[in-house]
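Ticket #4471: structure export looks truncated?
Reporter: QA, pipeline team
Priority: medium

Steps to reproduce: submit the single chain below to the structure queue and open the exported record.
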Amino acid sequence: MENLFWDKKLSPEEIKNILKDDSHKEFIPFSALLLRRTTNSKDVFSNYLDEIRFCKNWRKIKQRMRKDEWRNPNINFWDEVYKVVVEKNKDKIQLVQKRDVLKKPERENFIDIIKKTRREHGLTQKELANRVELSQQTISLMESGKFNFTVKSLMKILKALDLEIELRPRVRYFSSVDSSQAVSMPLEYIDDKPQPENVHKTEAENRA
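Actual output as written to the record:
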């Protein structure tokens, strides 16, 4: 196996551990460096990068490769490799993408609000399912984060629980709200209080 990281003060094992974890802050830089220095796909996929992880992150890796060395000919080579590997592993990649969606904290917050509100309304999963014409199993899977619900099903559930989704321009929204709380805030209870006539306030009006 060729030493492709001769200029890095890390052991081969440490580098491999970085390339096994695409959440690591050095994963993209090290992957880009690796692919800039070799076109030996067999060596790369056997000793450094998992094929699925490569496919998931190729766009980011390619951007980094261009940033580091815009005209590197290896970019075109790995672009073609990506197309072949994606086609070969498309079923596995879809499963990984679905699994990753379920891990997102935004989704977990969203589901927690629905679950909490159902209980506050005194509804069992079966009772909610009957109201929205879904199976109890579907509600159970949704609340455990194991089911990707459709927009139509989601809207039925929100209506049954007196919830709504509020969409706001991202810049205005995050400028006045703590980003750590931003996920759950768009999902609010509907009450009988009159809503403001003009919801599109300017930044100056918000600060006033």
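Status: closed, not a bug. The export was complete when the record was re-opened. Leaving a note from the reviewer for reference: Residues 12-100 form one domain.
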